[in-house]
């Protein structure tokens, strides 16, 4: 039996989208998926080093790993009117060169933040530590991600929504905010890669359709950091019908992110997301 490493973040939407496989709801013939959970920047860095076979990443990382990893079409998270939040202590004023905590160098929120605030002094830390760092005055502000956007302290207030930065940079185009997706090692044989992607698509679809069953199971097993009500709100945002398989508007949004990164000097080349997918027609051509 082949063993394939699948790494995802410990936040609620990634766990929710993966655990249909963990609970045995999806069968992958002669293959065992072994899951690893780590914060998103740890996964970004691991992907740069080629550690995992399949890995969750920030979309902003992908141009750096495109030669070694194919972009998967499933388990994606987008914001539509919401997303990460730049927060500060209540009634404080940020200077032009304020000190800010971000969740990682290669995260999507970091890319958009750097474009919007080129003079800010950036420090990176685990996303779970950012809220406390702002409250304690270690930094002037921080960008919250994952469940923290719903649960942050009333000592804090929002300075700027990353969604608003995104909208401003899109010049009138109405596009969802591309946050995170998954990629697969290119050295995996193509027929296996197609099989694994189909299994992951099915897993996300099954999880989404059986949310009322799966969500309580995750809470009961202590796999989720928030309560039932917050989990429900969070899954509405990031693990929904739009997470199952990339759509045309989502491809456009990812390409816009890549365009912005290239325009502002973060990427050496301008790429299109659909050029880096696993070719779906391979099996059909092989059968001829």
Give a quick summary of the entry.
Helices cover 40% and strands 20% of the residues. With 288 residues, it is α/β, with parallel strands linked by helices.
Rg over alpha carbons:
19 Å
Low-confidence runs of at least 5 consecutive residues: none
Q: Could you say what the CATH architecture of the largest domain is? A: 3-Layer(aba) Sandwich
How many domains is the backbone divided into? Answer: 2
Give the CATH level 1 class of the largest domain. Answer: Alpha Beta
* SSE run: EHEHEHEEEEHEHEHEHEHHHHH
User: How many angstroms separate the termini?
Assistant: 28 Å
**Structural class of the helix and strand makeup?**
alpha/beta
Mean pLDDT: 93
The helical percent reads 25-40%
Q: Per the principal axes of the C-alpha atoms, what is the gross shape?
A: globular
Give the percentage of residues in beta strands.
15-25%
Q: Characterize the largest beta sheet: strand count, sense, and whether it forms a barrel.
A: 6 strands, mixed
Specify the number of helices.
12
Number of strands: 11
Give the CATH superfamily of the largest domain: Periplasmic binding protein-like II
- The CATH topology label of the largest domain is D-Maltodextrin-Binding Protein, domain 2
Function: Catalyzes the conversion of cyclic dehypoxanthine futalosine (cyclic DHFL) into 1,4-dihydroxy-6-naphthoate, a step in the biosynthesis of menaquinone (MK, vitamin K2).
Catalytic activity: cyclic dehypoxanthinylfutalosinate = 1,4-dihydroxy-6-naphthoate + dihydroxyacetone
Keywords: Ligase, Lyase, Menaquinone biosynthesis, Oxidoreductase
Protein name: 1,4-dihydroxy-6-naphtoate synthase
């Amino acid at each position: 039996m082949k063993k394939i490493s699948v790494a995802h973040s410990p936040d609620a939407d990634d766990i929710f989208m993966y655990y249909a496989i963990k609970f045995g709801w999806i069968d992958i013939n002669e293959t065992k998926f072994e899951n690893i959970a780590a914060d998103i920047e740890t996964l970004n860095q691991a992907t740069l080093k080629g550690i995992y076979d399949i890995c969750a990443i920030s979309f902003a990382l992908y141009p750096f790993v495109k030669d070694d990893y194919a972009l998967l079409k499933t388990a994606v998270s987008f914001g539509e009117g919401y997303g990460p939040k730049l927060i500060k202590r209540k009634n404080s004023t940020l200077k032009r060169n304020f000190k800010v905590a971000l969740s990682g160098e290669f995260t999507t929120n970091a890319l958009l933040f750097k474009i919007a605030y080129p003079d800010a002094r950036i420090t990176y830390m685990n996303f779970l530590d950012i809220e406390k760092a702002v409250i304690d005055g270690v930094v002037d502000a921080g960008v919250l991600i994952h469940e923290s956007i719903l649960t942050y302290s009333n000592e804090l207030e929002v300075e700027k929504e990353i969604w608003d930065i995104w909208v401003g940079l899109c010049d009138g185009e109405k596009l969802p905010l591309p946050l995170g997706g998954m990629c697969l090692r290119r050295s995996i044989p193509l027929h296996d890669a197609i099989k694994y992607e189909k299994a992951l698509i099915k897993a996300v679809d099954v999880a989404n359709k059986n949310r009322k069953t799966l969500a309580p199971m995750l809470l009961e097993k202590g796999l989720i950091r928030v309560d039932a009500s917050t989990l429900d709100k969070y899954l509405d945002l990031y693990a929904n019908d739009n997470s199952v398989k990339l759509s045309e508007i989502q491809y456009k949004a990812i390409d816009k992110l890549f365009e912005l990164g290239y325009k502002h000097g973060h990427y050496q080349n301008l790429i299109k997301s659909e050029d880096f997918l696993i070719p779906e027609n391979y099996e059909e051509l092989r059968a001829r």
